[in-house]
Write the structure tokens for this entry.
Amino acid sequence: MSLFNLLSVSASGMAVQRTRAEILVENMANAETTRTPEGGPYKRRDVVFESAPQQSPFQSVLMSEMGHVANGVRVSEVVEDTRDPDKRYQPGHPDADPAGYVAYPHMNPSEEMVDLISATRGYQANVSAMSAVKDMIHRSIDMLR
């Protein structure tokens, strides 16, 4: 596998972790949203990843010479939580049902923060991997001088 393919693998990891962080922040921002355009409370969303071959400008030449495929990652889908919403007794709320209960999104802000920290660390790990590859490329160029 070439060093340039390693850069594209890390770049794909950074892209999916950024998407994951965006979805998690959206979830946290809507933790108290009881009314959406679709009706009902906001539904928590999750990102699903899948392995994906990486394409680079040198990929076709590398494939014909070495037969190696660099696999990175991509977002395969964003799924909505199917669990029932949390019910809270608030009879004066404008979105209360006839029994006085309001439907809130089913999510735990602490879990969302832990997931966000995990996404941040995944992003940072990919940045570190890219920095290491960049250093290897620079050392290889220095050796050829």
